[in-house]
Amino acid sequence: MDNRTLPYLLLLPATLFLCVFFLYPFALVAWQAFTNEAGFTLEHFRTMADHWKFPIAFWNTMLLALAVVPVQVVLSITMAMMVTRMQRGRDIMLYIWTIPLGISDLAAGIIWLAIFEQTGFLNSMLYGLGVIEQPTNFLSYQNTWVIFIAIALAEIWRATAIMLVILVAGLGLIPKEYDEAAEVFGASRWQRLWKVTLPLLRPSLQTALILRVILAFEVFAVVAALGGTSLPVLMGETYNYQFELQDGHVAAALALVILAISIAFTLFFLRVLRVPKGAQI
Amino acid sequence: MAEIQIRNVAKTFGTYQALHSIDLTIADQEFMVLLGASGCGKTTLLRIIAGLETPSVGEVWIGGRRVDHLPPRERGIAMVFQNYAVFPHLTVFENVAFGLRMAKLDDRLVRERVERTAGLMHIEALLQRYSGQLSGGQRQRVAVARALAMEPDVILMDEPLSNLDALLRLEMRAELKGVLEASNTTTIYVTHDQVEAMSLADRISVMHQGRIVQAAEPVEVYRNPAAHFVGSFIGNPPMNFITARNQGDGKWQVAGQQFTGPSVASETLEFAIRPEDLSLAETGLQANVRVVEPLGAHILVTCDVEGSLFRAVIDSNSRVKAGDVLHIAPEPDRIRWFDPETTLAVA
Question: What confidence tens digit (pLDDT) does each residue in A249-264 have?
Answer without folding.
Answer: 999 999 999 999 999 9
